[in-house]
Amino acid sequence: MSYQSETIADILPRINTTYFLPALQREFVWTEVQICALFDSLMRRYPISSFLFWQVPMESRDDVEAYEFLHSVNESRNRAALARIHGRRDITFVLDGQQRLTALLVGLQGTYLGRKTKSGKGARTSVAKKMFLDLLHDGRFPDAEGETSYHFGFFDYTPTLINQNSYWFEAGRILNVGIDSGLQDLIDRQIKSIRDVRKLTSQEASVVEHNLTHFYESIWVDDAISYHAETDPDHERILEIFVRANSGGTKLSKSDLLLSTLTLHWGSENAREVINEFVDELNNKLTRKNRLNKDFVMKSCLVLLDQPVAYRVSSFTKGTCTIIRSWWDEVRQAIMRAVDAANAFGIDEDTLTSVNALIPVAYYLHQHPNLRLRGESAAEVLNAKRVRVWLISALLNHVLGGSSDSMLHKLREVLQIYRRPSGEFPIAELNKAVSEAGRTAASSDNAVDNVLRTTYGKDTCFLALSLLYDERNWGTINHSIDHLFPREAFKKNVADHVKELRDNFGNLALVISDENSGKKDRPLNEWLATRSQEYLKRHFIPADQSLWHIERFEEFLFERHKLLRARLQYVFSTDNKGVGE
């Protein structure tokens, strides 16, 4: 494999004119610190690894889409825009080195949209920052930690003389200096500018000259960009090269590769934009906020369309991509309905501990496109209850956590076999498959025990408590986790072993947020005296009022646990009780 080497100044003008990002790409993820470290490496004459380019053959240009490198990036979302390449003679895709080239572009010609603390108020706002080099810091002597020698930093203003020891030079200005001309003039002007605001020793002037000369050489003289240009027209081979080249560094998500392949077979629409917009809709446009990603959507496509469950690049063949494109509208609706149902059950970004648990529900809804989980008929309400109990139990018992491909495959088989004309959710059969796989099913005593062992502060606490109630509007009514015996009650004259039981499941309930604010730290016996019998039944409060005092807290827990266990056994039952009724 032959390599060529060129300067950064030679390469930069070709970015977004000849050099583009392919559909095979990841979003830019580097931080300001990483960008500064790259330039420090250049100044120290460290190699910054080789680059891999693909010179797109003329006959392949109608089959590819190009994206522009970003000049301005931010801390979170950095999606490349589609480039207009029609009529261009030379198109080269950057396969390996996308992050590094973007970092060079941002550092020398662009901005980094970061966060800045407003003085006095602590409020945070986004500001566009440019990169600067500290001319007074002698980079020939590394920092104590040995991590950096030359000081680069991003600022949203021209910092110049921040203190007596630093003088900042805007990095992009080095591009205005041509080969063998203008450097000395730049050095002289910077030294004069510093002397206008402070004294400058001859040693400090030498540091300024060294830094600017070194910076100039790293951009204009050093052949810092070493690259190999691949010319093979075979897309599959290019994909394999790309995967191998990107096996290190910031991890490339499988969804990036799938989206890259999908884009080639998506037709007139842009697959990347379609999927990204759908993820945004799932996360921000439903009744609750969610934290789903492209990987979830892509894996759901494989499962819902009866493709191989294993989430590997090899699963995304041309045939699979064509199937996904053909069925996208239906798959999209099934996923949307599954997430919407989960939100209605009170499951959102804070409580969805395994996104894979949603996939069997989405598969079930894909099988029954006209089925409603928000319907009002008795059958619809009961069926929604089955789905809710199964989904929450799957989350509480980590049925689809970790390596879940085999479990997803088994559950898909069950849904295929027990697809009923009535649309009834086969909860008993799904629980049986879970149990046979050696995992805790909702119908087992272990499932009940797992719920009762849940304590305040666990990310599953809200979901576990929600099983106690028949509420159907979790998505629209705000609920809070309440300590029945308030935490204040455990601060005085209470044994240590009793204090340790404060966050026990038996001392917790879900109440409407406004109601919780009204209760505050009132003693339980006083609060319950103002409540109705219906309230006591709803929250499974022992009827014996003598147990409502902190002195009998342990007995209260014992009696309430019995009530809670009976309730959970009823909820989890499938033999014409609970969800089977």
List keywords for this structure.
11% strand, alpha+beta, flat, 3 domains, 13 strands, six-stranded mixed β-sheet, 581 residues, 22 helices, five-stranded mixed β-sheet
Global geometry: flat
State the major sheet.
6 strands, mixed
Q: Order of strands across the biggest sheet? A: 1-11-3-6-2-4
Beta-strand segment tally = 13
- DSSP helix count? 22
The end-to-end span amounts to 69 Å
Strand content: 5-15%
Name the poorly predicted regions.
117-123
- Domains, number: 3
What's the helical proportion of residues? 40-55%
- Compute the gyration radius: what is it? 31 Å
Kindly name the structural category: alpha+beta
Arithmetic mean of pLDDT: 88
Structure characterization notes:
This protein is of the alpha+beta class and 581 residues long. The chain folds into three domains: 4-225, no CATH class; 253-443, no CATH class; 469-580, no CATH class. The chain is 41% helix and 11% strand. It contains 22 helices and 13 strands. It has helices spanning 8-11, 32-43, 98-109, 183-195, 202-220, 235-245, 254-264, 271-284, 294-304, 318-326, 328-344, 358-367, 378-396, 405-417, 427-436, 445-452, 461-466, 496-499, 513-519, 524-528, 533-538, 553-572, and strands at residues 4-6, 19-22, 51-55, 66-67, 72-74, 92-96, 111-117, 124-134, 152-155, 168-170, 225-230, 479-483, 508-512. The chain has a six-stranded mixed sheet with strand order 1-11-3-6-2-4. Strands 5, 7, 8, 9 and 10 form a five-stranded mixed sheet that branches. A hairpin with a 6-residue loop joins strand 7 (111-117) and strand 8. The radius of gyration is 31 Å and the shape is flat. The model is unreliable at 117-123 (pLDDT under 50).
